[in-house]
């Protein structure tokens, strides 16, 4: 498996992964009509428009690419967008998506480590990540040592949801793992 910077040719694969991950993770959590409305075509157009913008100015997207299967996951991150969190966590993991059938194989961790190295290299010593409290993959971040540091209520299609912020205190530890080939 190779982890590399995303480019415009990855938009279709990223769209499929993004939609499939959302439908799996948020089934029974987010409104069914919202999940049904997600389409590969719409998401691909959005990625085509946003990949160049998302890989400049302090943000980055990496893809995990299998030599036979193509792109099977991606991570995006950059500068923390939330002003309250930014006081302590200047970096942010905006999202990690691994095609459901390839989850729990170390791909998400490898993507996380690559992003941690990028954020550390641009002087973000700490990072945060936002996730719905009901999201089934919260333990992924907890296993990486992230701790819940903040919560807020958000509305999604008129339904209240609790969103949690997890803080990662030392990105350099992950950056060192990446540079040593671990």
UniProtKB/TrEMBL annotation:
<keyword id="KW-0012">Acyltransferase</keyword>
<dbReference type="GO" id="GO:0016747">
    <property type="term" value="F:acyltransferase activity, transferring groups other than amino-acyl groups"/>
</dbReference>
<dbReference type="InterPro" id="IPR016181">
    <property type="entry name" value="Acyl_CoA_acyltransferase"/>
</dbReference>
<dbReference type="Pfam" id="PF00583">
    <property type="entry name" value="Acetyltransf_1"/>
</dbReference>
<dbReference type="InterPro" id="IPR000182">
    <property type="entry name" value="GNAT_dom"/>
</dbReference>
<feature type="domain" description="N-acetyltransferase">
    <location>
        <begin position="1"/>
        <end position="169"/>
    </location>
</feature>
<keyword id="KW-0808">Transferase</keyword>
<protein>
    <submittedName>
        <fullName>L-amino acid N-acyltransferase YncA</fullName>
    </submittedName>
</protein>
């Amino acid at each position: 498996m190779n982890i590399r910077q995303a480019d415009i040719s990855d938009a279709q694969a990223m769209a499929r992964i993004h939609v499939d991950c959302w439908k799996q993770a948020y089934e029974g959590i987010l409104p069914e009509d919202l999940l049904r409305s997600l389409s590969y075509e719409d998401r691909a157009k959005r990625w085509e428009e946003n990949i160049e913008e998302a890989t400049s100015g302090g943000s980055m997207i990496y893809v995990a690419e299998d030599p036979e299967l193509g792109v099977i996951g991606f991570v995006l991150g950059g500068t923390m967008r939330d002003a309250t969190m930014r006081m302590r966590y200047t970096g942010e993991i905006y999202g990690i998506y691994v095609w459901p059938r390839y989850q729990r194989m170390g791909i998400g961790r490898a993507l996380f480590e690559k992003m941690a190295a990028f954020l550390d290299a641009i002087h973000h010593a700490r990072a945060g990540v936002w996730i719905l409290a009901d999201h089934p993959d919260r333990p992924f971040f907890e296993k990486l040592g992230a701790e819940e540091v903040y919560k807020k209520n958000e509305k999604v299609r008129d339904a209240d949801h609790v969103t949690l912020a997890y803080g990662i205190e030392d990105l350099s530890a992950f950056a060192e793992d990446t540079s040593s080939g671990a």
